[in-house]
Amino acid sequence: MTxxxxxxxxxxxxxxxxxxxxxxxxxxTGDGAPTIEGSRQLQRQNKIDGFACVSCxxxxxxxxxxxxxxENGAKATMWELDTRRVDAAFFAEHTVSELLTWADHDLExxxxxxxxxxxxxxxxxxxxxxxxxxxxxxxxxxxDMAPERAVFYASGRASLETSYMYALLARLYGNNNLPDSxxxxxxSTSVGLxxxxxxPVGTVLLEDFEHCDCILSFGQNVGVNSPxxxxxxxxxxxxxxxxxTFNPLYxxxxxxxxxxxxxxxxxxxxxxxxxxxxxxxxxxxDIALMQGLARALLDLDDAAQDEGRARVLDVGFIxxxxxxFEAFEAWLRAADWSDIERESGLSRADIEGVAGVYxxxxxxxxxxxxxxxxxxxxxxxxxxxxNLALMRGxxxxxxxxxxxVRGHSNVQGQRTVGISEKPELVPLDTLxxxxxxxxxxxxxxxxxxxxxxxxxxxxxxxxxxxxxxxRAAPDTGRVEPxxxxxxxxLQIATHLNRNHLLCGRETLLLPCLGRIExxxxxxxxxxxxxxxxxxxxxxxxxxxxxxxxxxRSEPAIVAALAQAILPPERAACAPWQEWVDDYARVxxxxxxxxxxxxxxxxxxxxxxxxxxxxVAARERxxxxxxxxxxxxxxxxxxxxxxxxxxxxxxxxxxxxxxQFNTTVYGYHDRFRGIDGTRRVVLMNADDIAELGLDDxxxxxxxxxxxxxxxxxxxxxxxxxxxxxxxxxxAAYYPECNPLIPVSHHAIDSHVPxxxxxxxxxxxxxxxxxxxxxxxx
Length: 776
Ligand SMILES: Nc1nc2c(c(=O)[nH]1)N[C@H]1C(S)=C(S)[C@@H](COP(=O)(O)OP(=O)(O)OC[C@H]3O[C@@H](n4cnc5c(=O)[nH]c(N)nc54)[C@H](O)[C@@H]3O)O[C@H]1N2
Ligand SMILES: Nc1nc2c(c(=O)[nH]1)N[C@H]1C(S)=C(S)[C@@H](COP(=O)(O)OP(=O)(O)OC[C@H]3O[C@@H](n4cnc5c(=O)[nH]c(N)nc54)[C@H](O)[C@@H]3O)O[C@H]1N2
Ligand SMILES: [Mo]
Description:
By secondary structure, the chain is an alpha/beta fold. It has 3 domains: 111-173 and 419-466 and 480-607, 3-Layer(aba) Sandwich (Rossmann fold), CATH 3.40.50.740; 187-404, Dimethylsulfoxide Reductase, domain 2, CATH 3.40.228.10; 649-763, Barwin-like endoglucanases, CATH 2.40.40.20. The strands form 10 sheets. Strands 6-5-18-17-16-7 form a 6-stranded mixed β-sheet. Strands 30-32-31-34-25-33 form a 6-stranded mixed β-sheet. Strands 12-9-8-14-15 form a 5-stranded parallel β-sheet, sandwiched between helices. 59% of the residues are buried.
């Protein structure tokens, strides 16, 4: 079950290329891999009348490549089409206590869940339960509960149709407790962008990549997390666009790429350089970095004015379209280069060099990911990106814009159709009229609120539409025991994960169809839809045979749940059965609630490349309070929210190339040269030496928060020398989540600050060790 002989070797090849084909083969020909069905389905991935990839949310082009998928998308497809089954016989063989000792990988690799199950405390096992009985149990617990004590979590994969129904279910039940994986992810974007540019989403469309001449990227790992984005990047690089990356780690995808779809490149090993320049900013150093870039732009603008040359700032745009530039300019003029250099870890000369490139580019795209959002000052990070874009008018014109790269394939869409704990973001009056009920108006619980509620006992029921909440959320060590106090833990899922093993007084595990599978309702194969990172809506049509006869679709499960847990007069507010019989009717309902966003939804469902929702900032309309785009002066230069001190490191938690969030496909982090284990800490060689450690020595990480009495440690890790700035260390998520207290989250957006966690590095130690293969 475990892989032995861990090895650590620097990776020199480009992203993509033969390495990705080999990596795919490892998965495509493994025990449970459906090779023929797999290759049939891969050709339908991200195509018109095919299915939308279940991995990342990157845009899908109107004219797809023959193979419009990447290594990691293909792994996700193979994972869903797994031929292994987690059935009643599997659960009869293993107690829950035993399964709790298994690693994340070992649980999920058992295959697809195929029968509804209920936890039986006497035998400490999951036992079969009928669908009717499962819904009846949920109804018994939830009908007696005060509505505010139940939480309806969604992981960002479920379709627009399911998500719309699910959000309505929560509101009919009586709360806005709709936390989403987005709360742990791009919520800093959803809070920061509206304040700066009036919309919660990026402004870039795929075609903008054809017209840009500069791309700045901050804290995103394209080669692993959105590999299909390497195609537009490669094309931009070949056209001569300048691409500049800021990341504490040298991520291979931003360095070089060999396109597996180009036979000549594959034959010759030719690769395309992606970034012209790469700067290892300190974790949490981006506000300072961007202040430096902005200050250097101002200096260039001063010089241009002195010499009578064209202005560097887009003064026409700033005057007409923005607010707050004077205060921002004053802040820049007061900036101190020694502070900027110390906090960013980069030299003034380098920063000025990049500013020079940005100043000359006609149209620039600014890309970012979790490296900016998952910090105490993550919202400031996002707003600094906006500041930089606004200075040169890089919003709302072709080839320019802000490009947050979202995570789960429909995480953005879930928010669009009402999954939000923030009632002000949802057209509640429209819902009230459409469904003749009074929706709850109080703010609901987000991820942080849910964790706090589980810890203090105020949350009594958790309903999970996908995901692995307890594993993805912070403070794992405290959340896991508290989970057992829940009256109900109900999970709708495709694969077994650790969260399912945390059992409350009633625990239900309900298996659902995945998006690749055929979903026949009322004799007709149904389609669903998703929204990608660039706000384009796509149809998704599954044709693979379902993993088992007992599986139900997510819309069918949500509808049955609604009928089971709502009082009859409430359940009657929405046509649940009609919706399940024909998902097109759900799309009509979505259009009725959001007429501007989803005009002619069913008619446009199959638009090649998807149809874009209208985004005001794209047209230079600013839906902020002032009616203008807002410059913003951050309060601090350092995004971490804690002081530096001797012996305190900034831990950034990252994903490997062999995982999708908490789904660990295997132990091969190819680009980082780590094979066979995940129990590693990547450290600067000088830090290893200064601590008197040997390379590869066993260490423990201990959380180091001022005034925090709780002991939070992860042991059994190995210190590996790596190219990373001094004082920063990197290790894997979710293994390191016990180190993050629930209080360590972004101000305002509440995104857990997993990219800068203060820790001490302790030699040896006997703290709890994450399950999984040990370093050799
Ligand atoms: N194959 C695969 N694809 C995925 C996922 C997956 O797990 N596997 N997850 C999906 C999800 S839900 C999401 S949200 C996205 C996540 O995709 P990303 O946004 O790429 O997220 P991470 O892998 O967490 O890492 C972000 C990057 O930020 C860098 N970084 C860390 N701290 C800082 C900092 O302070 N400043 C800067 N400039 N950089 C920093 C890290 O080195 C890393 O390269 O990917 C999605 N796609
Ligand atoms: N320290 C640290 N913590 C993090 C992060 C980090 O970078 N560092 N990243 C955060 C981010 S960006 C995110 S998005 C969260 C992820 O948090 P989640 O979205 O909650 O977690 P996943 O690992 O994506 O969920 C995997 C599970 O989803 C279920 N599943 C898969 N497909 C389907 C489906 O089609 N339907 C249903 N119903 N279930 C399905 C499977 O059972 C699988 O076990 O984690 C966050 N936590
Ligand atoms: Mo995410």
